Amino acid sequence: MDALQPVRGTRDLLGEDHRRHAHVVGMARRIAGLYGFDEWATPIFEDTRVFSRTLGETSDVVSKEMYSFTDRGGEPVTLRPEGTAGVCRALVSNGLTQSLPQRVFYAGPMFRYERPQKGRYRQFHQIGAELIGPSEPLADAEAIALGRDILRGLGIEGQTVLELNTLGDAESRDAWRHALVGYFSDVRGGLSDESQARLERNPLRILDSKSDQDQALVADAPLIDASLTAAARDHWDELRRALNRFGIAFRENPRIVRGLDYYSHTAFEFVTDRLGAQGTVLGGGRYDGLVAAMGGPSTPAIGWAAGIERLSMLLDDVPEAPRPVAVVPVGEAVLPAAIGVLQALREAGVRSEMAYRGNLKRRMERANRTHARIAIILGDEEVARGMAQVRDLDAGGQQEVALAALPAHVRSLLG
Length: 415
Ligand code: HAM
Prior knowledge:
Elements: H1 15-34, E1 38-39, E2 45-47, H2 48-52, H3 60-65, E3 67-70, E4 76-79, H4 84-93, E5 102-111, E6 123-132, H5 137-153, E7 161-166, H6 170-186, H7 193-201, H8 212-218, H9 230-245, E8 251-252, E9 264-271, E10 280-286, H10 290-293, E11 301-307, H11 308-314, E12 325-329, H12 335-347, E13 352-354, H13 360-369, E14 374-378, H14 380-384, E15 387-392, E16 398-402, H15 406-414
Parallel strand pairs: 1-5, 7-8, 12-13, 12-14
Antiparallel strand pairs: 2-4, 3-4, 5-6, 6-11, 7-9, 9-10, 10-11, 14-15, 15-16
């Protein structure tokens, strides 16, 4: 029979890949906790409208990347392409819209039907943080500070640059969109086919185009700056002051528009040049209209998400595989003693394992394969005296130790 393969764009996380992944999540969870964030876990699939209503009908994610299907009961459901919409849905469903602010951290798989390449998968994983309630630019800065501190904790801050933009409020954006449509309509023939289509559906996305043909025209496109209302400009000025107060360096990039449509005011991305085309490791912004779009009251919010696969690829310090203690019984008769030793070690918090079969040589080979740090060898004669041989597999020495003293002895050897 054919060996079955993982679905295109999905990956197994085994061994070192999983350790990198767990390290990222563990670090993020710890630092988010220091910032007062609580962890939520929302369902991996939702009513399709949770996403179609909020991410933008014309966004790439909604128009061509969602894993949507009708379930056996006839309900239209979608595997979540991102985490923010579900968090806002949960805020409303759980009656928390009057209990603000909410500081929410999450980690888990997301699904987008994109063309797979390095750093881009169809099932990928995000860590994310949402700060729901505050409208102050100080909150934007604090959310960004959390992202920065997680990158710092992972030792990859230096490989990234924070790029920052404002998308203004609805009024600013309407004026800007109008200016963009005017400008691009005049040069329409010079745009790629895809951007010509965007001109009708979502002109802001032309700014995000990767095509060289478009880039030349994008360079001279009107900037939002000229269209900002006084209130939007205040938020933008305050934000940059607040980032300075947090000691966060940033580069203004007026071309950041983000791929989802729910953003207003702040938009930001930590980007790297070490991952080729998929250089955005962490992205987010303010989404003051999303909770209302979910049927809740008008509620300001700011947040971000980062791709765990991309963060993992940047890690220099790979967490090492934990090394076990190998318990090596020599013969059937000492099996009860060996099981007793295993249990005592595990109760003492020591990772330990036993090879089930084979002679001493085979079992020692197995201990080496698991990269065991210590072997505890249990022979008939020693066990009869209540003793075992403890071999240090790195230093090479061997010592006889009383069975009852093994957990304490092993722990002191392990440091
Ligand atoms: P996003 O920019 O669509 O934003 O995704 C955030 C991050 O997820 C990206 O910067 C990237 O690192 C990772 N990512 C996205 N798609 C893929 C993929 N196909 N394969 C691997 N990694 C990927 C959001 O998802 C928003 N919910 C962020 C947010 C939270 N805004 C406000 N709050």
